[in-house]
Automatic annotation (TrEMBL):
A Pfam family it matches: Spore_GerAC
Name of the protein this chain belongs to: Ger(X)C family spore germination protein
Topology of the protein relative to the lipid bilayer: Lipid-anchor
Keywords: Germination, Lipoprotein, Membrane, Palmitate, Signal
KW Signal (keyword) present: yes
Family, per entry: Belongs to the GerABKC lipoprotein family.
Spore germination protein N-terminal domain boundaries: 20-187
Amino acid sequence: MKFKLISLISLVLFLTGCWDHKELEEISYVVAIGLDKSEDNKVEVTYQIANPEVGTSLTGSPPPNEQPFENITIIANDFLTARNTVNAFIGRQLSFSQTQVLIVSEELARSDEFIKMIYTGIRERELRKSVNLIVTKEKASEFIDINKPLLETRPHKFYQLMVNRARETGFVPPSDLLHFFQTTERDADLFPVIYATTKQDDIATKNKFEDEYKAGQIPLVNKNLAQFIGTALFKEGKMVGTLNGEETRIALILDPTIDIQDMLVTYVDPLEPKSRIACKVTVGRDMDINMTLDKPNSKIRIKVPITLEIIGVFSQIDYSTDIKKQKQLKDHIEDHLTKKVNENINKLKQVFGGEAYSWSLIAQRHFLTQKQYEDFNWMKSYPSFDIEATVKVTIEEFGQQVQTPKLKLVED
């Protein structure tokens, strides 16, 4: 017994060690990877490398001219193995363990080379599959170089907070690398990806409302600020089009797997068309999606429950205590949203030949075997479906103050 105990203790001693241990100062963490199209089937890779000594109080005050990150761009065969090439001029080992975003230019995303290039990352253990995929209107290297975040000095924190907040408002879709791979391999749905840019469009867009913009269309006074709004749509691993913020929100509403937490929007006042009514929108969890999958007469009927909190009536019309006016408001918003939802469904079906609402996951339940589902060929069959959606609106409350303030008395 004593001999066995001594043997076990000896074995534990041999198992311990730090032969592969790396000190923090020997590692550089890549927080963002940018990919751009290059010639001869190569890729232009940009690494945004964080400086851990800037923006923290643990190491004292860094030199005043020290930057919180460094951007390095090289031309390589592959964006993963390129990190060894970077060691020709950087002494630290590059690590992808803290990478937050994979940024791809629209030019590369629309090319046939993109899917082959991105799939090299599926086997890389260090690159987390929760990394967010972002498509930029300009080159990814330009987006990374030009972007000057407000309030955040640490780039990894900026990407984390920006993407999470944009998802909460519904301006961009969830687009992590894992779900991109899963959806592409399933070959049934369109996959929505975050759309962003630092380039301001020259087209006048000041007459649009809060969610009708795409990235680059928001009329900003400040320059060099990244705009995260809208969707880049992918079909079979290739970008095929874009949606603006409003269309993105509608698509997310129709996806039962997604929960939008903080959607604020304005609608036309039915009794004063020149004014708007501000609302907080909540999508009910009991969305009814009824499918009849029978070629060639397949049908889908959707009922979408929406709850509204009225937070601003700019016309000062009293909707809160007048039941008749409340019904007019409810019917008006129901008609408006029903129209927008059906327009969204028809646009994706007719223009892009698919849907981005994860409905294929629901469709699988209608088949006894996986082979029956595969033989049905959801992606090919979907454009011929007869689809109709209706929205049911419930006005839950009128904010903290029920009665509408009488501003005319103030003016008098």
